[in-house]
Each structure stands twice: as structure tokens, then as C-alpha cells.
Amino acid sequence: MRALLQRTTGARVIVDGAVVGEVGPGLVVLLGVGPDDTESVVDDLARKAAELRIFRDGEGRTNLSLLDVGGGALVVSQFTLFADTRRGRRPGFTAGAAPDLAERLYLRFADALRTLGVAVATGRFGAEMAVELVNDGPFTIWLDTADR
């Protein structure tokens, strides 16, 4: 599983001209699911994202987690995080999970964050989406469960 975390002061997802998900300060999580990912991997990654100390404390140091600051998370499915660009100029997308598995684990990730106490909004799985955000910092972190 791969997640691109972007610290934000606010973000939203628009589908067909309508806002389907929106958060204030917190994280935008672009989430890609691999074919071998499991519920256990999802739960571990959600906890890591929620507990990662990437928010400023009173002294301006990145010393607080999403849970510490009470931030929200906008979770957006992003199968292109598994793009294979090693050959040619056209990325391949066969390394990602099948849509049924990807959707199930994507929704579980959002639920796992909610269980931890994070207010979660989501995009719409499989839809063409416009994601608008203000990247605070900018501060962007790449998490890949294969790197554990």
C-alpha cells in the first residue's frame, strides 16, 4: 500500500461539479492499494498516518500528530501511485490491486482513521475527481508499506 500525505490548511474533492468531500486543517491522503495488501496492512498504515509527528507545536517544530492537533483527513483513492514508468513513455498500471479489493481496502483505511478519532472525508472511488488543497509548508510525506 502506498500513501502520499500532504499537510493541508484545507482541501476538497469535486466530482461532476459538486463537492463530495472537504476538510479543514489536517491531511490529504492519496492512497494506492496493491494486490497483496491486507486489512492488517491497512490498519497499520492508518495508525502510522494518524500518529506521524508532522504538525507544528507551539515552538514551530514538527512535533505533533494529526491526533494531537485534532485535524481531519481527506482520503482519495489514487491507483496511479502504482504506475510503472520503467519502460517507454506510457505508464503501466497493472501493479495496483483489482478494483474490488482496492475499493474495500480504501474504505477500510478511511474507517480505520475514524476509529482512531480522525474526522474523515473521502473522494469517490473510481470517479474523475478534482482535488483542491493548500499544501501547508509545503509538507509532503511518502509512505510505502513495502519499505517496512
What does this structure look like?
Helices cover 23% and strands 39% of the residues. It has helices spanning 39-51, 66-69, 99-115, and strands at 2-15, 18-23, 26-32, 55-56, 62-64, 72-77, 119-122, 130-144. The strands form 2 sheets. Strands 1, 2, 3, 6, 7 and 8 form a 6-stranded mixed sheet that branches. Strand 1 (2-15) and strand 2 form a beta hairpin. Helix 1 (39-51) packs across helix 3 (99-115). The chain is globular. The chain starts with a strand and ends with a strand.
Question: What portion of the residues fall into strands of 2 or more residues?
Answer: 35-45%
Distance between the termini: 11 Å
Largest sheet: 6 strands, mixed
Order of helices and strands: EEEHEEHEHEE
What structural class is derived from the secondary structure elements?
A: alpha/beta
Rg for CA atoms: 15 Å
* Total beta-strand segments: 8
Overall pLDDT score: 95
Q: Which spans of ≥5 residues are poorly predicted at pLDDT below 50?
A: none
What's the tally of helices? Answer: 3
Overall helicity? 10-25%
Comma- or semicolon-separated keywords:
alpha/beta, 6-stranded mixed sheet, two-stranded antiparallel ribbon, 148 residues, 8 strands
In short:
The chain contains three helices and eight strands; from the N terminus they run βββαββαβαββ. The protein is α/β, with parallel strands linked by helices and 148 residues long.
